[in-house]
Amino acid sequence: MKFFKIITLILLAVFVVIQFFPTERNQSNVVPKTDFLLVNNPPQKIRAILQESCYNCHSNKTDYPWYNMIQPAAWYLEDHIKHAKGELNFNLWDELSDRRKSSKLRSIIKQIENDKMPLSSYTLIHKKALLSEVEKHNIIKYTTQLKDSLSY
Fold first, then answer.
1. By three-state DSSP, how is residue 118 classified?
2. Which pLDDT tens digit goes with each residue over 108-128?
3. Would you say 54 and 119 are in contact if contact means Cβ atoms under 8 Å apart?
4. Sign of torsion over alpha carbons 83, 89, 95, 101
């Protein structure tokens, strides 16, 4: 029993100490001129879907949940957001070549068709980010049209 108490106290101490190691916040209030929504001006229904289901991880502005104030959850979120922005950052859309844009649009289509995006770990907590079949169809249709309009 004494061993269990010691282990519990050590774990509690570690938990308290790691709270003093903050993460980098992804919260820019500046929307650059290269932003996907500014450049492409999609219909409102597409804009709303992207903002609700994609922009939180794939842009420079994240609306953090309450649990982001607790380590190690904050480390997990920071890593997830950095990886997501590395794959696609909608704020930097117009910095991409048309060929790269086409590749990203194909990837968006494939990810949505295969129910890979938004991530199930994200939609577990963010229920509004779940895409209905109609929303999936609309996003796929829009991104396909946008991809086909690119010249490279």
1. coil
2. 999 999 999 999 988 988 899
3. no
4. positive
Contacts of 151 (CB under 8 A, 6+ apart): 98
Cα within 13 Å of Cα(4), Cβ side? 1
pTM, to two decimals: 0.83
H-assigned helices in the chain? 2-18, 36-40, 44-53, 73-87, 98-113, 120-123, 133-149
DSSP assigned state of 151: -
Residue with tokens 């794939």: 58
Cα angle for residues 51, 103, 94 (degrees, 5° grid):
55
| CA separation for the pair 91, 60 (Å, rounded) | 7
User: What angle is formed at CA 65 by the lines to CA 62 and CA 47, rounded to 5 degrees?
Assistant: 45
Long-range contacts at 36-39 (CB < 8 A, ≥ 24 apart): 36/90, 36/91, 36/93, 36/94, 37/90, 39/93, 39/94
- Two structure tokens written together for 82: 């950095």
User: Rounded mean pLDDT of 43-54?
Assistant: 97
Strand partners, 27: 61
